[in-house]
Amino acid sequence: MAVTESSENSFIVVIRVSHVYRGFFMSVPTEWARFHLPNKSHDIERRVYSYVWKAKYQYKVYGGGLTGGWKNFFLENFLKEFDICLFDLISGTDDAIILDVKIFRVVEEVIPPSQVMRETSRGTSKRASKFVMDSTSEEDV
How far is 2 from 106, CA to CA, in rounded Å? Predict the structure, then answer.
């Protein structure tokens, strides 16, 4: 589905461990960046529906990526490894780079972790994280 919705102004990223669990850096495809972004580091806005997250695009001659702000975007959108993000360039001037983001999930419904109480061997209560997962659908990729 992500490929059919893409255009020459968009790029697709399959979320990897380095994007979401270590480092919180997401590379932007080099050829796409050369054509659509200025050759300098600058701020970028990412939008999902009406919500906006700011990030820093770190320019490098061999290819740049999103750094500052990427972690908040990941956490607040509950991104997981193998989710697919379609980034669509909406505004591409030197002053305002805006990307609309559409998320295609490896797990259709994301349920944030919740805290539950569990009994310990001593009979006291202790907080434990409860993670709920739905079945994976490969048709959406």
Answer: 12
Q: pLDDT band at residue 2, thresholds of 50, 70 and 90?
A: confident
CB atoms within 10 A of CB 139: 6
What does the DSSP 8-state code read for residue 32? H
In the predicted structure, residue 99 carries a pLDDT above the cut 60: yes
Q: Considering only CA atoms, which of 25, 20, 9 is closest in space to residue 99?
A: 9
Torsion of CA 37, 42, 47, 51, to 10 degrees: -170
pTM: 0.71
Per-residue pLDDT, averaged over 62-89, amounts to: 87
Find the DSSP H helices in the chain: 2-5, 17-20, 30-36, 70-76
- Rounded-to-integer distance, Cα 86 and Cα 100, Å: 8
